[in-house]
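How a chain folds remains the central question behind the approach discussed here. No coordinates are needed to read the tokens, only the vocabulary itself. For completeness, the protein is quoted in full, as a sequence line and a line of structure tokens:
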Amino acid sequence: MSICTENDSEGKEESRNIWKSRFVSLILQLSHAMRGFNLKDRCKTTQVHAYNTNPFPISPTSKLQYPTINSILAESPPVESFLPYGLPKTHSFEPPVELCLKSVDFVESLAELYRKLQMTQDFNKSLLHLEQYALLYSLGDPKLLRRCLQSARQHAVDVHSKVVLSAWLRFERREDELVGSSAFDCIGRVLECPKTALLHGYAPKSVFDHCQSHGPPNEISDGNNFLSSEKDGGIVHFCIGNEEVNCIRGRIAALSGPLKSMLYGDFIESDKERIDFTHIGLSVDGMRAVDSFSRTRRFDSYPPNILLELLSFANRFCCEELKSASDCYLASLVSDIDDALILIDYALDERAPLLVASCLQLMLRELPGYLYNPKVLNTFCSSEARERLATVGQASFLLYYFLSQVAIEDNMMSKVTVMLLERLKECASERWQKALAMHQLGCVLLERKDYNEAQHYFEMAIEAGHVYSVVGVARTKFKQGQRFLAFELINGIISEYTPTGWMYQERSLYSLGKQKILDVNDATRLDPTLSFPYQYRAIVMVEKSQIEAAIVEINRIVGFKVSPDCLELRAWCFIALEDYQSTIRDIRALLTLEPNYMMFRGKMRADHLMELLSLHVQPWSPADCWMQLYDRWSSVDDIGSLAVIHQMLINDPGRSILRFRQSLLLLRLNCQKAAMRSLRLARNHSTSTYERLVYEGWILYDTGHREEALAKAEESISLQRSFEAFFLKAYALADTTLDSESSSYVIQLLEEALKCPSDGLRKGQALNNLGSIYVDCNRLDLAADCYVSALEIKHTRAHQGLARVYHLKNDRKSAYEEMTKLIDKAQNKASAYEKRSEYCDRDMANSDLSMASVLDPLRTYPYRYRAAVLMDDQRETEAVEELTRAISFKPDLQMLNLRAAFHESMTDFSRALQDSEAALCLDPNHKDTLDLYSRTRLKNT
């Protein structure tokens, strides 16, 4: 025992005071460093960084050591700090029930729909193209879906359908996200023009014409012929309060039957020169407007309140012409969402269909921004609101299909989504419509954990012929503890129909033991594009602490199908390995796809986790980022490139060229929606008009408006010669079959682009494209020079072009070696293996194509090649089976066409006809398929 003296006590007290002072100072510094976080996030951050139970260790060689912020952050955190909710578990992991119509025999459904389109008159095809949209939605191809909506708009007859479809096409392009855009903006084509949509009539050939969208309000032509049998009949004075309005009796009488009876019939007013109109709800100015219209059948410039009075007057006295004119004129005056929100109730009360349509159009073209506006919800959501719209012909399955899709995309579990789907159900009349409405209602209620109601709607969808809804019934039973019943339901589907991947995937949820993993593996065998089986196997490996093997499994799906959930799972695995650099890469790529993504099953923002992890990796300077981007771009590491660009944009969010490059990478990864979002951001952050025009041009080009894209490029060049403007123009022109004159012009444009300032990454792409044009013109030496120049600035994909040049020079060995170089350098190798197969013998080609299919099952050439080889070897049944296996998960136009040709050669004309019809449902203008279809129809009769 030691005895403390008074001096010792004072010394220790002083030491403690110093310690407390420095501790407070440190806390203040930590507080300052974390000021950017909100309160909840600060708590999380403090907890995550509490690495040591004793944060202030005392060295044996010194009395006290006080840590700095850097020393705290330099400590290695426990893995649990970044996995606060643990790694995923197999028992709680399941795929979502798909929201779309899903046929058990997709090819048959496509063929049947094509036959219906062929048998239906053109002016009745609009709803059939909407059905086509619903059927093809499961393929996830935005361009294909857009073509369906365009066809539906092309064949629309009534104003209501035109208004909804034009707004839907605008929504698909997300024009609301373009800064400075108006709901009345259009791309210059009738197809999406808001004013043209208000014109009734059928003109299918005009929808792709240029529109006159900024003309004056509609005027009513002179209608003196209405008075041909009437006499003026002198003057009649209409008294309103203390004022009189002098009108021509005969002309007022000509406005309607009731007015004619009043002024010339047995009513006492017929003998009066003065008639009291004080209490009919019409002002003096309103009566003067009635008088003016009766004389001229035209409107002067009246304010909306006067026109509303005319509308009410027309309804009271059954003046159909006046009502139609007022309705039309008012509709032309609706110019913004505020007008629409005010006028919609008046329009519905007065039953003015065109004014309702005009107001409706503004609301729809402002989606999703105004979806939760109380006035908008009041207009659409309740059953009474739907009935009110129906009285003026403005409620339809089409309308509520659009609204419910917007709501599902915004917030699937909201009450608004449920209400809109209920209205969709009420509007459904055909079987496919009922199936879709019931199934989607079931999916939403399942997510809301309303299992009994969800099961009810799934069962109704099954009654309407949607077999896939059995999955929903099974899921609801499973959620309520009825695993065996769920298993039996899916087992019955597998027994009754040709098994597909989704059937085994679903049954795996209810299987036990070895059967579970067998079902998961069968799902992958039948449909290698399903994400869940890869994720499930990876989680099984995680539970066995086989983290590296789990990452390999996830890489199999990420290699050809990038999705946020797969990137999140791989990031979890990297956290478990304490590989924070790889974790951050995946989270950055994930945030590029979905900027507001919530990790750990919605419990933590992905960007917040990335910030925490970033404290434990070496930061990159802007120069480092460019070097990293060049390395990843040249190694064809698209996910790595996305991650680098994401970091660069955090430091410099206004760089449009980075957003644009981001969009190119996303297109390469087949993430088209995210790519379009990046393009819109590039456009919004443009610092000059010529740059903005280029990005607007790319948006138009990527949504199928090639001529408009070319016009934007030319306008940009007229303002400023730039690499991107010349490149856009060359790219859009090269999109069609080029003759020698056109090829020369494209070459000239690319050469002009290369003279303009740009970075090596883009110049490498231009050189690669220039080489391709030279090859098409048989100028092989010039092409080779372009490819070599591209390779010198690390455009690795130029190996493929150079290989093509060698092949055309009959040097297959050099071509093969060139592709081998690409395989060695590239991380994404599937296309390289596929291309190399063209430069080797059959056995080696089969080996390369097998590898291509393993790396990317979505590539269709390997299946077609193997089927053709089998057909050449007269193994016809095996050739058809090869294509059938791929078509079951990738119903591709070319594979359907090839299988149809095989069936034709085997004299199986009925199946050849079905495959041709299915292919033409995907592309009705495909010439080879049209020829085959004509032949097989003749042979099948």
Remarks:
- The first helix runs from residue 6 to 33.
- The beta strands are 235-240, 243-248, 274-276, 604-605.
- The mean pLDDT is 88.
